[in-house]
Amino acid sequence: xxxxxxxxxxxxxxxxxxxxxxxxxxxxxxxxxxxxxxxxxxxxxxxxxxxxxxxxxxxxxxxxxxxxxxxxxxxxxxxxxxxxxxxxxxxxxxxxxxxxxxxxxxxxxxxxxxxxxxxxxxxxxx
Length: 126
Description:
Elements: E1 4-7, E2 10-13, E3 18-24, E4 32-39, E5 46-51, E6 58-60, E7 68-73, E8 78-83, E9 92-101, E10 115-116, E11 120-125
């Protein structure tokens, strides 16, 4: 059983930064691509960023490109999302998820991810 635990969310002013972490259980973390998604109340979950199993390739939603950076530490079984220049429209619950085995970090559909964390709230005030 894989468990994902997000942390690092909170309240920040527009223009500020937050760093989300997602700690994964299990010995096979390093064999899977990972991703971050977010969801606002009443809206569908949307793709934010993905990273390949080795960490060498990343992809981003257009709305966060240039502001957010996804990274991973396979020795620590952790994936990160550094969020800079935050905007009020970034307010959402952020989820990390496990992607395809030996994935290239290109999966942007939620159906391509099989395990999900419980989410962490990010609120950006104007």
